[in-house]
Amino acid sequence: MEDTAYRDFFTQPAQTYQRQYEALRAIFVDGRKQTEVAEELGYAYGALRQLVFHFRQFVDGQDESADSPFFEKLSPGVARPTTSPRRPSRSSLTVGN
Prior knowledge:
97 residues
């Protein structure tokens, strides 16, 4: 079974929240350097540092009922989109896309 497309979903995230999650996970869980992660995921180093700063603020200030900064809640009755957006090229990936 060819798993390339499935692997690419995780190693080449296209959606903003997924890219942020993968970057932070690589730093905090895998212990990778911010410069390495920034280059791999197409972030400017300063932008990734800001993401890390804001994530730390979120975690330090959250309470038990805090929503995840990565997954948005849909209102009741709102359907998820049935089509996925086209994956941007690596050179166009920046924080806040």
